[in-house]
């Protein structure tokens, strides 16, 4: 499909036209003796929407976690705008990469506005003492963050529900809120992990239009999705992972016409394909590693925030 790459209302993190935003080279992730992702190369350029598909257990979310600092790849490297990314999720966000999750991770007992303000965290320069003393600089930054958060809520169509608790939103609107929160960090690259999971056709179409609008803001997008109609309508390029390896990459027509892709989705075994027990071991290892990485990241971010003079660290 042909997409309009004109940037409208570009965000501060938007990349220059033609710039390579993401460059993943030889990314491999092992959990003990199990290899979940093996030697994957992938690039995303400014103004592009790139899809990542594959059967269940193909390693898509593990690869996402390697890109966003939740996992440190066993081998390979990930570059954002030419710089190697630090192996910490909050530092990756600060660098300019934001993501959503397959399972919605909102602060259920916070308001819609407060959830988006959390996403502004990495772009707020006020530190510990500024927050304690609440001087003019703190109030100016707070007002600016609220103004930007309301702009993003209007962008996703939730500004009229700014004071509602996140837990009271319908499922589709919770997905929109998670995207707004990710956009609040002013990313140059947005990673979406199954953004239409559980949605009806109308919600899926609305999500498609929203992703196009995000692209038009100058933000590159990498998306995992199981809805093939959605992914092929949306993306400029699509990469297919099978058993942790990239099988093929190309435009929608090329990928849909590849017999190996059809075979993978029909469940036909490849040479040396892992059995069910091995797949289950990989999935269990991934879940444990993700939980451990998230807990460590949360502790590190809390420590970083609480340190006096934090405003001088950014």
Count of helical stretches: 11
Which overall shape is indicated by the principal axes computed on the Cα atoms? globular
What gyration radius follows from the Cα positions, in whole Å? 20 Å
Q: Beta fraction of the residues?
A: 15-25%
**Poorly predicted regions:** 1-8, 127-133, 304-314
How much helicity do the residues have? 40-55%
**DSSP summary, beta strand count:** 10
Give, in order, the helices and strands.
EEEHEEHEHHHHEHEHEEHHH
Largest sheet, spatial ordering of strands = 6-7-8-3-9-10
Q: What structural class is derived from the secondary structure elements?
A: alpha/beta
Pfam family, one: ABC_tran
InterPro entries: AAA+_ATPase, ABC_AA/LPS_Transport, ABC_transporter-like_ATP-bd, P-loop_NTPase
Biased composition (Low complexity): 292-301
GO molecular function: ATP binding
